[in-house]
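Appendix B, example 12.
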Amino acid sequence: MFALVDKSDNSITKMFSGKKGVDIGDNRYSQQIFSLWTEAERNAINIYEVEMDYSKRKDGKWYINTGITYSFDGSKAKGSYGDATARAHADTLYTEQDKTDKKIPDDKDVGDVAVRGLKYNLIQTVKAQAEDELNKTDWYITRKAEKNTAIPSAVSTHRDAVRTKQASMETSITNASDTPALETLYTYVNTADEGDPVVMERPLGELPNKDF
């Protein structure tokens, strides 16, 4: 990304991707000014490569990032993000003010869910994943009901383990105090001792997965 700077007030007047030629005033420049020209040559016509600062940019799954603000300090063009806002970890409910402002649908009332939060959505995902895993062995249950064929103990053990882990994961999500705590649950880290092979795990853990 490149910026055209007005040196009279250090403002940025245009942004360029660097993928095609540009017109500046009465002059037309080919795309080569971004690939073949030196930085000094571009600066001489007031074009500066933008230095990006990503320090405040966060994972969009957990945060709402701001737009990029571009600036020129007299020698460098910079782009940076503002402070990200954490996505709501809990459900947002309709309030009395919403009722006053007539923002509540006819089939809802104060205290009903207006927008689902991260916890609800994450738990729904865990439920769906557990269901998918159990579906792999549902045919054993059907066969048992139709033919009275015994369900292998390994299958029963696995299905119980899936349900147990599902409940544990849902509890961990429910008990998370805020969005950063949820993010931590899902962040993989190396849990191996120093010198041992890398083992990447997340605090939330994983549902058992097995093919029979």
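The chain has three domains: 2-86, 87-116, 119-201. Residues 2-86 form one domain.
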